[in-house]
Amino acid sequence: MGTEEQGSQKTAGKVAPATGKLGVMVIGLGAVSTTMIAGVEAVRRGLAKPIGSLTQMGTIRLGKRTDNTSPLIKDFVPLADLKDVVFTGWDIFKDNVYEAAAHAQVLDEKTLAQLKPYLETIKPLPAVFDQYYVKRLNGTHVKKGKNKRDLAEQVKADIQAFKKTVDRVVVIWAASTEIFIEPTAVHESIEAFEKGLDNNDIAIAPSQIYAYAALTEGVPFANGAPGLTVDFPAMVELSKRNAAPICGKDFKTGQTLMKTVLAPAFKARMLGVSGWFSTNILGNRDGEVLDDPQSFKTKEESKLGSLDYIFQPELYPDLYKDLYHKIRINYYPPRGDEKEAWDNIDIFGWLGYPMQIKVNFLCRDSILAAPIALDLVLFLDLAKRTPSLRSIGIQEWLSFYLKSPQSAPGLYPEHDLFIQSMKLKNTLRHIMGADLITHLGLEYYD
Length: 446
Ligand SMILES: NC(=O)c1ccc[n+]([C@@H]2O[C@H](COP(=O)([O-])OP(=O)(O)OC[C@H]3O[C@@H](n4cnc5c(N)ncnc54)[C@H](O)[C@@H]3O)[C@@H](O)[C@H]2O)c1
What we know:
Number of helices: 15
Oligomer: single chain
Distance between the termini: 12 Å
Radius of gyration: 22 Å
Structural class: alpha/beta
Number of strands: 11
Largest sheet: 7 strands, mixed
Helix content: 25-40%
Bound molecules: nicotinamide-adenine-dinucleotide
């Protein structure tokens, strides 16, 4: 047999089918979540297409290029069908999903009116919230508890109640970005974390309380924001122990998506980069929250990481060691969700001659994020049903969707979108027992 496209073929056990209902619990029913939920309903009703969603529109090549076999991903791996997806969630405001979507002003009134009877039925559960962690918000629909452990127990009770109505559950954080928190001793082990819950440790933010509740319930957890949330040893341990898959954090939507496309191209061609200035204006609630320096710091750290990892300045000091990377986010209400991003990239070529590239991305933040949130939910549910994935903790193959991918201790994360895409598809081939694709292709020239 030829060797172009085959690699290791180890598979361990069959992926369980996606039978019954998949319950999706969304933390934060804001712009991204309501756009995802309304979008899924619009697709289910045949009103629109799920553009931007790899799980719904993507194909996967199997075998040789001459085989012409490229099924849809959703026909190749057993993913939950959209008709079987059921939503609920938590928010600090009482608005139902129709009201929240109308407030977010992402989807037009005509679309929302068509979906209104369905969207109105989804009402948020009271949230775990503390304004210390999100300075610019103040909600009223909030749980009360004697300590953080008690709040975690209340979230667990919410999950248990929802579990009774569906067959499987996934939790996703699409709530506001919390202030920057450094990992401390409380994050080092499950025992230390649980003690911290009892003692109301200040380094345990609400997002960590939800994540703890989900993972102890054996429920996969995705993090759409850049917070610490599941990115510390106690959560990785819980994830493995309870077969509750996790992945990295912060949806990779606009500017960072472009960065992780362009930077690998410069590196592949050995072009140097001396400066990369990125600025944004946006006027949605996310922009308002990020206007607070402590929340911005969390986002900044997440956005900064990608270039360092892609450029590997320690391997290419002549090209990247002096790179000046600056990121700004400016809250500018008139734009709402329609963010505008500018990048100025100072590059240099042969003999050091300088050049410039300007990128001006007029995007729609939640339109880009909604399909990512959906794909993460569906793929984490797949991971939970896959014997070789469910107990490994971090699902690095989902880095494709994230600004800050998580990876095993000591392993640097892959930020290059094309490596991430190949890793994702090869993981799908691997779990289904198909040959991996290496793109060697010598056998076509035998
Ligand atoms: N849209 C994008 O392109 C994009 C990309 C990457 C990351 N993100 C992140 O996704 C998250 C959601 O973005 P958005 O535009 O929908 O923001 P949003 O402000 O419209 O929605 C966030 C929602 O979370 C709620 N909330 C805040 N704290 C909560 C808590 N503790 N529990 C429950 N609900 C809580 C808020 O009330 C609000 O309804 C943000 O953290 C944002 O940084 C968005």
